[in-house]
Input
Amino acid sequence: MSHRVLLVEDNPDDLELARLAFERGGFARNVDVARDGAEALDHLFGPAAPAPPQVVLLDIKLPLVDGIDVLRRIKADPRTRHIPVVMLTSSAQDRDLHACYDLGANSYIVKPVDMEQFMSAVNSIGLYWLGLNLTDAHS
Output
């Protein structure tokens, strides 16, 4: 089964590490990337939107539209509300954590600073959300 992942990340280093971790883990041959919140919303709701992803990895601090607003839109729309959203962010602030869970985030992970720990975290995300978790987001 081919898994679709929407990776919403504006940091090019984190983006490449996440892609590499998914590749090494054998997950997500189809990793779609959005580099800002507006691009993520267009990817999910625009006229040329592809099939919905199995999971969205979403940073909070994004240009144009922040990740909390993207999360709000995903969880408010009946077409996307069941897609798991994993907040993968550098923010460890309680207000961000609580805001994300209040809006329906499925997981909140603070990005490890160490490269190997970061790749391990993304690999664990892949193992759980793409390997073990069952979802009705799409077939």
